[in-house]
Write a structure and sequence with these properties.
By secondary structure, the protein is mainly beta. Strands 5-11-10-7-8 form a five-stranded mixed beta sheet, with no helix packed on it. It has a four-stranded mixed beta sheet with strand order 4-3-6-9, with no helix packed on it. A four-stranded mixed beta sheet has the order 13-12-14-17, with no helix packed on it.
Length: about 300
């Protein structure tokens, strides 16, 4: 599912490309019920507090458009990307700094070359297989954003060039802060490497993703088909004919250094590939060409 992060010629990048947007809402903590009909003052005043969870916002992706909210409140938000199309899609979230608007972004996307500094990638759900879904959680601050798809399969044309872009406005939040997800594994994205805090066990796992590098990176998680290797996957990216040698589970789209993002995936035992398709800031080649591809075993 080749995808190009940003303003360069088509670069194959399978499931990923790793930027999703749509909305954030904070669920407030709830006070517990007060005991009734008791004389014990300590019991009468007892209360329980339930930590707030991130708001969940659903984005539907199809060829070639998003169905998603255009305005959401600030706060920790889980974006759920449902791929309704026959092709791969992701939801790249970008923040528009310096007072820039979606119109400014559309003009910038028409030009070749590196992205403008005011266009900051903050993650979003990376590409799941068609007719499946993926998720990513981000802390959204008030301001102007956009939801984009840079996947360029099957014809090498990034979907954003076909109109797969949508503005998103994040408004001030009125509720309390939500609790960040509890991570099973921390993944640090570097130039050009994935560093995992521990081995990965089968089950529903939450990953905390951080970029500690000079440029944005992404993580696309692909479950390899039995008997297939990373080399088979790269060959298929170059010539996507027949069934793919793996299943795209999502991940986190391009993420600039700074705040972390999170995603959750249901893993079965087997071999998986971590890959970054983001074009390099220096030579425009996808980061996996520089070695940012890694096979891990889930037990």
């Amino acid at each position: 599912m080749p995808t190009n992060f940003i303003l360069r010629g088509p670069v194959p990048r399978s499931v990923s490309t790793a930027l999703t947007l749509s909305a954030l809402v904070l669920a407030a903590c709830r006070a517990g019920d007060r005991g009734a009909g008791r004389s014990d003052s300590a019991t009468d005043s007892a209360s329980t507090t339930t930590a707030a969870a991130p708001n969940v916002v659903t984005i539907h992706a199809r060829d070639f458009a998003f169905d998603a909210p255009k305005e959401v409140p600030a706060g920790l938000t889980t974006f759920r990307l449902v791929n309704d199309g026959p092709n791969f899609h992701h939801a790249q979230l970008v923040r528009l700094d310096s007072g820039k608007t979606f119109d400014d972004l559309q003009e910038a996307l028409k030009r070749k070359g590196p992205p403008p500094r005011w266009m900051v990638p903050i993650g979003g759900p990376n590409a799941p297989d068609p007719n499946t879904e993926a998720n990513a959680t981000a802390d959204m601050k008030p301001g102007n954003y956009a939801l984009l798809c840079f996947v360029d399969m099957p014809d090498g044309v990034p979907h954003v060039a076909k109109g797969m872009a949508q503005p998103l406005t994040v408004t001030a939040a009125s509720n309390g802060a939500a609790s960040v997800p509890t991570a099973d594994v921390v993944v640090t994205l570097r130039d050009y490497d994935f560093q995992l805090s521990k081995s990965v066990a089968a089950g529903k796992r939450t990953f905390e993703v951080r970029t500690e590098a000079s440029q944005p990176h992404e993580i696309e998680l692909i479950r390899l088909a039995p008997g297939k290797k990373a080399e088979d996957l790269l060959a298929w990216f170059g010539k996507p004919q027949g069934p793919p040698p793996g299943q795209g589970l999502g991940g986190v789209a391009a993420l600039a250094p700074g705040a972390p993002a999170y995603f959750t995936a249901d893993l079965t035992p087997g071999n998986y590939v971590l890959i970054c398709f983001v074009p390099d800031a220096k030579d425009g080649k996808p980061h996996y060409v520089h070695g940012m591809i890694q096979t891990i075993q889930v037990t």
